[in-house]
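pasting input
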Amino acid sequence: MAGFVIRRALGAVLLLVVTSMVTFAIFFVVPRLAGQTVDQLAAQYVGKDPSQAEIEATKVKLGLDQPITVQYGRFVKGIVAGREYSFGPSTEYCPPPCFGYSFKTQRPVWPDLVDRMEVTASLAFGASVLWLLAGVSIGVLSALRKGSFFDRAAMITALAGVSLPIFFTGLLSLALFLPTGVSYVSITDDPLAWAKNLLLPWITLAFLYAALYARLTRAGMLETMGEDYIRTARAKGLPERIVVTRHALRATLTPILTVFGLDIGLLLGGAVLTESTFSLPGIGRYAIDAINNNDLPQVLGVTMLAAFFIVVANLIVDLLYAVADPRVRLS
Amino acid sequence: MNSFGEGSPGRGQAGRDLVARPMDVVPLEVPPEAPQGETLLEVEALTKHFPAHSGLFKPKQLVKAVDGVSFTVTAGETLGLVGESGCGKTTTGRLLVRLIEPTSGRIVFDGRDITHLRPGQMRPLRRDIQMIFQDPYSSLNPRHTVGAIVGAPFRIQKISTEGGVKKSVQELLELVGLSPEHYNRYPHEFSGGQRQRIGIARTLALKPKLIIADEPVSALDVSIQAQVINLLEDLQDTLGLTYLVIAHDLSVVRHISDRVAVMYLGKIAELGPRKSLYETPMHPYTVALMSAVPIPGPASTKRPKRIRLEGDVPSPLDPPPACPFHTRCWKAQDVCRQIEPPLRELRPGHRVACHFPENAPGDGAAVAGTG
Amino acid sequence: MTAPFLQVKDLQVSFPTDDGLVRSVNDVSFGVARGETLGIVGESGSGKSVTSLAIMGLLKGAKRSGEIWLDGISLLDASSEEVRKLRGRKMAMIFQDPLSAMHPFYSVGQQIIEAYRIHHRVTKAVARKHAIDMLNRVGIPRPDKRVDDYPHQFSGGMRQRAMIAMALSCDPELLIADEPTTALDVTVQAQILDLIRDLQRDFNTAVILITHDLGVVSELSDNILVMYAGRAAEYASAEDLFTAPEHPYTWGLLGSMPRLDAEPTDRLLQIKGTPPSMINVPAGCAFHPRCPYADLASRTLVPPLTEVAPGHRVACHIPVEERRRIWQHDIRPAVEGGR
């Protein structure tokens, strides 16, 4: 087991390195390959209508005049040890982990991301509890009563949940229940207000995912209930309740765990639609603003963060899978 | 004539099989009588080692699936390859048709070394060596009609036939006991036995010299097994085919083969003419294997004393040294753990790899020497 | 004479499907006493597995009628909760493929412990000790270590032993073995059959052995029921069935199997055609399209299961004398060959 953990952890680190390379390449190599000059590239990192002097300064600060390897080296060093952007006397310091420095807002990206992390994490984890509970239990009940009225109603609702876009359900629920809109309150300030404000975004986001999970769980349960080992469990004389929970659900939930981990990882990188619809100041909102402002360092930072979450979520899922399924652990 | 129920007056006429017997139909142009006694396939020290899946820091391990197997197949005969799961019989079959690359050894087919032919060079040979698979459900493309499946070899090898492909396919269908009207049907419309017939028809399309049948009947119901075994035998008689039949069922192999090779852990334990091998098996493993086969019959039938082998077949990842059978053999002595017994001919055409063979001519133990 | 431990009378099992009612088992009757083995032989779709699952009460959505008596309890009248309590404790079952029949996420020990603790109020430690004892009893080496292994770490034969240990953990009086050796190699098959025989003797269990292999069935059975298309074709003692079989289907089965104890014949006696689909069972005697002796009666009337000798029942329209003559003159020499 220890070997397995080490192998997977090393793999995750490797994946992070590769991700950083790809992200770096997208932002600094691909545009050049596409025919942009160094000056044009540098111009995008300055504010609007940049002067030639500003472009020159940014070029040096970012090291765009250096070879690619040196640029990437600085990029990595920034993440690990922090980085200074200097041109002559003007120096901007970006403390580690340096996910970039926005020359437009004159601020390093990372602290902004940390500020917004709480909102996104609150949204993601709260909603995930809701959708996991609702989705899995509806899926199980549907599978056990396949073809019943409950099953059909649940699956039609689920179809609606999957098909309706968040901004539709979100705006509709806002109009119906909270026309004044929601405003985020930190959990450390007032947990009650925190939950009260987030309830509607949670439900909206969870509705979509619960629908997906109900369908997944239902399909998984139907397959598992047909397995030979379920027949064995019944042949042993186990009560149906235990057959369903300890034997069928255990096997069904394991693959769902994988999807769940990835979904959480994705959402932590920004629940763009939900945050926008409810005007929540989270990572997703930050990404949208960064794109609208054409602030490339911010976009780069968000991209790196999202990729980081997905890799970490993947690692956790792998480890959990090994705990759940002995065949993975011991093979 | 030995068909079910024939020869009972009054009712007997109904006893003719519905299944058209290959002898009753006009066969495709029968190739000239296969030259008897000529070696068609020669396999020498054939070896296949698979790299085993191992950890990041573990030394690389090898699964010795086939480990130095040698035998020949004479034109017109049937060689049976029998053994338990993991003995390497299926891998051997796949090596022969070059579905997988051998690690070492030599395969000579019809006087030509085919061990290292490139895929392009193999193509003409695919006409001559064909394979019948175990699972009649997964080896036929469900989206193709029977006509397309059986006719595929003609198209792939770009062979034009007299009267066109369709006529040839319909003749083939009749040959294997199906109806020509089945031409436009799909595999799912057929039962397991009929699908196996379709597979056989496809195999026969290009009049192969050698057919390798890997567990051709083990997925079929008992009554259907007999039909397919009879069909294979009838086709051999009519078309002068040569078979290599790979199976785990000793009774089936005995029924269909002229010579039989018993495999254990990637090696040939014993190889001999059918009668000699089944009546006087020499390798203790063969003896144990045969005594384990349940004989249908009342409790009063005389059964050979069962030799109860302990434990399981060892892993081919780490086969026992010297004689691979020594861990389960009741006759094993020190020499079996130290020196690998060579495959020696102790009776005409009957070879065995054992230091202390059973039923050996003369005193078995004496042959082992003092080594 | 007291009723046998398990008594099945006129059992019918049907499933509603889109193609109408599928009658998987029709009017099947048999009895099994303690310490006795009944072999049920048949090909795919013959209803042999459905019969066993019907006894266990493990068929979902099936309609069962007739009578099933287990030790004086009517299983068809008992509530599903009552039957559940009998499963595992009074009647147990082992299956063809022990790898898929055991839960991949739980250790072998956990699964045996679970089986034991459903029916016995004991601590986990006591149940674990019992599990180790059972593994030892079925011949698994180092059971105190292997008890914590997972099914996929066992070899095929060891898994089937573990499955048997699990089935026998509550000392059931009826054991149903559904193709218990079909997935195993022949030497391992011999070990498992020996094991079932030994355990049956020790526990005085009633055993139902379901298989397609006449060789396997003859190893263990006292009585044999041959099923075809959901009905009993022939029901006889093992002795009678192999020495004086009377149903053409039984003859066909015997003739279809190449055997090790006889000089190989040129051709096997084959049965033409294929087993029928249960959705479309032939009228009259279901075997008539494949039977060389079928006459008008076979095509229209279902032959009743008639006693031809004490304990020997056959469902066939051919007159008894004629059947015996065909067996003696035509079939037997071909089947037994040069034996």
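fyi Residues 186-203 of chain C form the longest helix (18 residues).
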